[in-house]
## 1
Amino acid sequence: MDVEAARFIGAGLATMALIGAGIGIGTVFGNFLAGALRNPGAAAGQTTNLLLGFALCEATGLFGLVVALIILFG
Amino acid sequence: MAAGPMEQFEIHPIVPLEIGGIDISFTNSSLWMCIVVGSISLFLMVAASSRAVVPGRLQSIAELSYNFVADMIRSSAGSAGLKFFPFIYALFLFVLMANLFGLVPFIHAFTVTSHIIVTLALALSVFLLVILVGVFKHGFRFLKLFVPDVPWIMLPLLVPIEVISFLSRPLSLSVRLFANMLAGHIMLSVFGGFVVSLAAAGGALSVLSIAPLLAIIGVSALEFLVAFLQAYVFAILTCIYLNDALHLHDH
């Protein structure tokens, strides 16, 4: 196979990291909502943890982007 | 849309300078770092100059940011961590302002934190600080950080994992911030390109260009959230790492 073509396929495959990031962000917000609806009083105090979890999750997907960029331009 | 989405991250020398074969030109990256540091200093000096008992608007913002970081350190690293308040406050404000300045349109803003060398330098300074604090405070006992409280038969498996996770901290800390900034700006640039090329297509397609325009507004709002969140995550992870070094495993 042509090296250039293989590069593009590899970069495309690297975007599969988004599967995990999507599942993760869904889990974070889904579980927060489930907990918040059971105990709305405690929800406000957990916003920090919610955002922290969201940011950490999102970053995992972005590692895939970095891999794709390294493949394309590295 | 002649320029690609990566063009905004290019570094151009403004004042070319070279000493002993090492290129130390004053670049647009250095310029924006100076702007970020200058604006933070200016803001805090102006805000703190009145020192009123009943704070005005500016003073309130300064006090809010001070309390925000102080509470963050107190809750995650205990009052022993307050010794490092100046470092973490400076780190938080620098990352936050660098992220926010990068989002300002029309002035060819350069996002300092979208270059991995900058974030890696910040993360490595955190990493070195953690090691130095741990070694000075606990001496040889600092190595206990790598020995979790488990039955001894698990240790051969867990100690390498702990060491690797400790060593990968500066990498994940820097790549997280860098990748978020890079991805956000690429996304904004690509959506901006959609608007321009759809509007230039003419006819019914021009009307369609309103869709990416609306999307770009939403993405911009998300990017402001991310800019703040990443500065926050960077600072709070620094606190958590410092907590490890200060208290080892005995919470």
## 2
Amino acid sequence: MELEISAKGINKYFGEKRIFKDINFDVRNGESIAIVGHNGAGKTTLVRILCGLIRQTDGSIRYTVDGKKIERENIYPYIGLVGPYLELYEELTAQENLDFFAKMRNMTNPQARIAELMEKVGLSGREHDEVKTYSSGMRQRLKYVFALLHRPTVLVLDEPTSNLDKEGTATVYQIMQEQKKDKILILATNDEADLKYGDKQIAVNS
Amino acid sequence: MQLILKAFYIFQKDIRQEFKTRYAINAIVLFAVVTLTAVSFSIGTFAAGDEVLAALLWIILFFSAMSGLAHIFVREEETHTSDTLKLVAPPMSIYLGKYLFNFFLLLLLEFITVPLFFAVMNFSISGVWPFLASLVLGSFGLSAGATMIAAIISKASAKGALFAVLSFPILLPVLIMGINATRIVIREESFAAISGPLQALFAYAVVVVTASLLLFDFVWNE
């Protein structure tokens, strides 16, 4: 599946306060971009706009799937997002969370995929523990399972390695490497090591 | 069909969460029991007429519902799971799933509160089935309106106060029609006797659900 995201003249204001202005880029399969900027520059806001979670104030974002334009609200099935503001249901177990998300994503027989991803992020054996018993690093790993469950064409990672130990960070780098081979990877980070995985850099500042 | 199925999955997820935390159930049932106790002590010395009791029953149900029905959206916001839900579910399924959950919660509240009210307040009616029909239709309307308002206030800071203030004018017709229906079934036992309030409750629920389905996308995504 070929997907292209084309952003033109994106501005964002919260009330009178300008967060960033004139963001332009194109990204398609096999490419990756890194969004960089100081704390408070609006990296997370731009990520949320790209994922269709909030609207930009001005400018346009065009999503094209196999040559056909799709609307913002129809982009969600193509996106896998990991971010510090995106939480899973902590009263439920990891398995209950993932079963719910798999059903919502119309996945048939998701158990093999869940097991494969839980193994990959090092959470095998903890499927039946409630998420509230997880450490912050384990929660971050579980967010990767959530994001990758439906094999998204666009993987968007906001602070991709936050809360992760060395082993977890290595797993994430492997995931990023695999994603950028033939799909789209979008990173929002200030970590020099993470930035290596972005082919292009987009600087966000007000 | 997919929308309905996904609404059911959301309902299932919410039920599972609720039975683990029991936040909304505890809030509304405790509120109802405490209010019922307070009312029974307050008017125990008067001989309140059945018509006054009919009004009191609906007032207890209404305010108990107000204490817990907003939780369904407030929880998603406070635990930062609303974006997660947004990524996996279409808005219409989210509204329907949450509506179903609030409807279930109201039925549970009525299952506990109504028999208690009848016992404690020595209240009796002639038309049991018409009364139950008015309760169910009233719950349809109450939960439809409350679910939509809960979605609106979930992003605000003073959620509790805002929910009550916004809900009251919108849900007032249900309260009035519910009280009317209950007043009638005190003496009448046929459905025909309360067909007016029942039709009005049904029409209200249909209008609010339809309007909510049309508007929810804007509320949820803006």
